[in-house]
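quick one before i forget lol
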Amino acid sequence: QVQLQESGPGLVKPSQTLSLTCTVSAGSITTAYYAWSWIRQSAGKGLEWMGVMAYDGSTYYSPSLRSRISISRDTSKNQFSLRLTSVTPEDTAVYYCAGRYGFGTYDYWGQGTQVTVSS
């Protein structure tokens, strides 16, 4: 069973960069045709899809975040990472990494990590 685990700072100051890493086990992030995403949920709001990196390294980002987001990977560690620049308190949320096969549903989820943007 594929497992995902988020890691990274829980507190980020406004205007700084949020960086999180997702470690994938029992499955390779380069296996065709899997895709790996970052999804977040702010208090009292629904899930917000942020972006995806496919098995071949290609990426696609939410238009609302495109100017601030990047997703990268380290295949030697079987990890993919999120970088979100110029954060504001509105970026405070629980951040999840998730995986899916093809264009199906997200079957694999990390437990989520709380990130608070505050000075």
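fyi The mean pLDDT is 97.
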